[in-house]
Design goal:
Blueprint (H helix, E strand, L loop, with lengths): L3 E4 L12 E5 L4 H6 L10 H8 L8 H10 L2 E5 L1 E6 L8 E5 L3 H4 L6 E5 L1 H15 L3 E4 L11 H8 L6
Parallel strand pairs: 2-3, 2-6, 6-7
Antiparallel strand pairs: 1-4, 4-5
Helix pairs in contact: 2-6
Length: 163
């Protein structure tokens, strides 16, 4: 698979009630195909939210959106454009960060959670000084992060997913 230069293909998921912004790195191939966040079936993001909020795992984009908004969350990615090979964060080069004003112009974000180390590095390098909000780097929900079980992810993420 060759590297591709790509621009983030879909907008942030945010509403005026959003208080916690969760930033991934850059959409996977599956997410780009679906034009929505965490589209790979093995990514544990949606199962994590369902566990933390004690609800069923959302399946449709409408159910996922409703879950995000019901808990005052917003979703986007720290990388706005890059060169990437497939879905591999390790292959990401030529990073241009996303313009977070698209989120902050809609909602009064109070906390920023960074889903994985690349999102954390990108946010801390390019975006944290602009937002003035220290980002909390969380263990990735990616299936590549096999060191963390869903239970362990929920223990770590859970306290920070409440407004």
């Amino acid at each position: 698979m060759e590297s591709q230069s790509l621009v983030h293909p879909f907008p942030p998921l945010v509403c005026p009630e959003s208080r916690i912004l969760i930033l991934g790195s850059f959409p996977s191939v599956k997410s780009r195909e679906q034009q929505f966040f965490y589209g790979h079936p093995q990514n544990r993001f949606w199962r994590l939210l369902a566990r933390v909020y004690d609800t069923k795992v959302p399946e449709t984009i409408e159910e996922k959106t409703a879950l995000v908004f019901a808990h005052h969350l917003a979703l986007w990615d720290s990388v706005g454009s890059c060169t990437v090979k497939g879905s591999s964060d390790a292959s990401i080069r030529d990073v241009v960060p996303n313009d977070l004003s698209r989120v902050f112009s809609v909602a009064p974000i109070e906390r920023i959670l960074l889903n994985g180390s690349l999102s954390g590095k990108t946010y801390q390098r390019y975006l944290e000084a602009k937002t003035g909000i220290p980002g909390l780097v969380m263990p990735s929900t990616s299936p590549a992060n096999a060191a963390f079980s869903l239970e362990r992810l929920a223990e770590i993420w859970g306290p920070y997913l409440r407004v």
